[in-house]
Amino acid sequence: MLDTKARVLINKPVNVLANLAKTLQLKPDQISLLSFGVGILAGIFLSFKYDKTALIFLWASGLLDVVDGQLARNTNTSSKSGAFLDMILDRMVESMFVLGMVIANQELAIPVVVFLISVIFNFSTFLSAGALFANTGIKSMHYDNGLIERTETFVFLSLSVVLVSFRGQIIWLLNSLIFITGIIRFVKIYFLLKRSENNNEYEVAN
User: Fold this and answer.
1) Is the N end or the C end of the chain the one with fewer CB atoms within 10 Å?
2) How many whole angstroms separate alpha carbon 101 and alpha carbon 48?
């Protein structure tokens, strides 16, 4: 939900970084891997309770994650393989970050496991939408917007780090919103497919 709005605010610095990467002859996949490495470091720092450093690295990873896509568009090298790599590495960064959180605070194990379950469910509906519907946007596949996207996830994870006393409650709230996002998308896709099937049956019958 915030991804599109937030993108407008950072378009200029993202373009500057993308052009710098282009000048350095870096490829989008290399930026994706750099984003992944920085994100993994965020989780490691969090596990050692270097919370401020962890947040800096988390958001740096998020910024690089936007830069790789912009670089691909600027160089006309957008590809499905790049989109696939990007999406998988994004989920790994989020997983490693919450793993670092559990290492630092083991009492958060249950809400973090539920977080991972909610992400699997929501991501499955997202990928299904991408596979089933035609792409009409600038991304490499159909992008189905939702209540909770990557920017919102980063905001909630950041709040959980800053507001230590409410860390568990914040993760549970994030889990609920991710599940709601997945359920809304699941219902929408299911009924769109049913409508399409019924239309096909009607056309065949006539």
Assistant:
1) C
2) 9
Please give the sequence-ordered ranges of beta strands (E in DSSP) within 4-93, or none if there are none.
Answer: none
Cβ(31)–Cβ(69) under 8 Å? no
Kindly report whether the global pTM for this prediction surpasses the value 0.85: no
CA 42 – CA 104 distance, rounded (Å): 13
Q: How many CB atoms lie within 10 A of CB 144?
A: 19
Q: Are 94 and 119 in contact (CB under 8 A)?
A: yes
**CB crowding 158-195: b at 16 or more within 10 Å, else e:** bebbeeeeebbebbbebbebbbebbeebbeebeeeeee
Cβ count near 77 (within 10 Å)? 12
Distance CA 178, CA 95 (A): 14
Q: Which of 48-62, 118-132, 189-203 has the lowest mean pLDDT?
A: 189-203
Closest CA to 102 of 180, 25, 43, 169: 43
206, 148 Cβ separation under 8 angstroms: no
> What distance in Å separates the CA atoms of residue 61 and residue 6, rounded to the nearest whole number?
15
Q: What's the N-to-C CA distance of the chain in angstroms?
A: 42
Radius of gyration of the chain (CA): 19
pLDDT-above-90 percentage for the chain: 60
pLDDT > 60? residue 4: no
